[in-house]
Amino acid sequence: LFLPSFQDLFGVSMVVPLMNLHIKSLGASHTVAGIIGSLYGIMQLFSSTFVGCWSDVVGRRYSLLACILLSALGYFLLGTSTTVFLFAISRIPVGIFKHTLSISKALLSDLVPERDRPLVMGRFNAASSVGFILGPVVGGYLAELEDGFYQTSFICASIFLLNAGLVWMLPWSEENTGNREHQQGNKGTGSFSAKANRDLHLKSATNGAMASDSLFQSPWIQVATVLKRIKGIACSDLWDIFLVRLLMSVAILLYYSNFSLALEERFGVKPLFAGYLMSYSSALGVLAGCLLGPITRLYQHNTYRILLHSSTLTCTLILLYASALSIWMVILSSTFLAFSTTIGRTCIIDLELTIGGNEASGTLLGVGQSVTSVGRIVAPLLSGIAQEFSPCGPPSLGVGLALVAILIMNANKQKYCSHGNVKLKNQ
Questions:
Q1: Which domain of life is it from (predicted)?
Q2: Domain 220-421 sits in which CATH superfamily?
Q3: CATH: 1.20.1250.20, 3.30.565.10, 3.40.50.300, 3.60.15.10. Which one for 1-170?
Q4: What number of CA atoms fall less than 13 Å from residue 162's CA on the CB side?
Q5: Which of 184, 221, 231, 301 is surrounded by the most beta carbons within 10 Å?
Q6: pLDDT tens string 354-395
Q7: With the C-alpha atoms ordered 182, 183, 185, 189, is the resulting torsion angle positive or negative?
Q8: Which residues contact 79 (CB under 8 A, 6 or more apart)?
């Protein structure tokens, strides 16, 4: 699963930086290009919850394969787009079904014990981030060739087809047997607890039965089941977790919004330096994902404390950037922010699954993605308004939002620490 996640973001990051240049070369105005980009974000906003819930209904294998293949179709159509209309059409299947990483995370949460989940998720994010670092370099090189954008799009579609083959080759039919053997083999070794192995086996069996039963249900029954599950999430007591995720995501987006322009206005540095600084932060984020194992052991697997401390550090570093008097303070804040944000993102996902329960992990991750999408829509608007007052306006506003998130976490400390599942209304 780490290899497809690496290839996924590697392929996507080859194409995405070139898309604005391509659509302008087709004769589209800045407004039309912006509208198409916004439509993609809106489709992601509404589809992530439904696709995540659908993966709970029909099983991870078929939903993941469907999303990979339909995303491949979207990038193949992108490689044949010679008009603005075809370009817009190619973004539809990708906008609706490009949730491959979310479903992969839900599958990982089904397969690993709860105490090992932050470690595995951190490594998964690290593998994805490496692809995101390397992809733009390769895409920029291919763009220099004749018809470079079309070649890059076809290569991306081919990578998704390769991922579909890798996912198909996973030992799905041997999953339950493998888990039982793993449980027997690790008895007495301390690698996993007996309860963790028992939960692992039960989750695998449940998902296997769900996949075989639900896949052949009529589409109307599947839709009704999906809507019922979404209603259960909406009526559950999880609003504070998703609100914390929204506030922290907007705070971080405000930090990075107009980053190059703000550095140029405040310190007179060129945009190239800002690009190097963001690549440096991305590389440190990969390292942070690999360090999650020792960090969780240091905190005795208390995800709430890790999240609270990482959020507090993030808030402090954004404040340091907003009040920075020299470029070296910006470099210092960017260095440690790469660690705190990577750890925070992983911990908030783990906390969602811990409090909400693994029975609806796909739905929970889908709702979380929708919440993040709302942040991506809201953050540019808030950044533009704050930028009118000062170049330091967006990060200063981000500090305030992060403080609110920290206060919410402190107010709900008992629920986070108890690790009791919040029962959904439909269970």
A1: Eukaryota
A2: MFS general substrate transporter like domains (1.20.1250.20)
A3: 1.20.1250.20
A4: 14
A5: 301
A6: 877 666 677 788 888 888 888 888 887 888 788 888 888 889
A7: positive
A8: 150, 151, 152, 153, 154, 156, 157
Specify the DSSP class assigned to residue 419: -
Closest CA to 65 of 38, 30, 104, 39: 104
**Residue 289 structure tokens:** 């994902």
CA dist 209 and 320 (Å) reads 52
> Checking phi first, is residue 357 left (phi over 0); if not, alpha (psi -120 to 50) or beta?
left
Are 1-170 and 220-421 equal in CATH topology? yes
**Where would I find the H helices in 30-147?**
30-58, 60-79, 84-97, 100-111, 117-143
The pLDDT tens digits for 168-222 are: 988 875 444 334 333 433 433 333 333 334 343 434 434 444 444 555 556 667 6
The model's pLDDT over 290-313, given as tens digits with 9 standing for 90+, comes to 888 888 888 888 888 999 999 999
- Give the burial class of 378: count Cβ atoms within 10 A of its Cβ; 0-12 exposed, 13-18 middle, 19 or more buried: middle
Output DSSP code: residue 114.
G
Q: What is the pLDDT of residue 358?
A: 61
Domain ranges of the chain: 1-170, 220-421
Cα–Cα nearest to 351, from 426, 419, 271: 419
How distant, in Å, are the alpha carbons of 4, 60, 128, 209 from that of 100? Answer: 9, 10, 12, 22
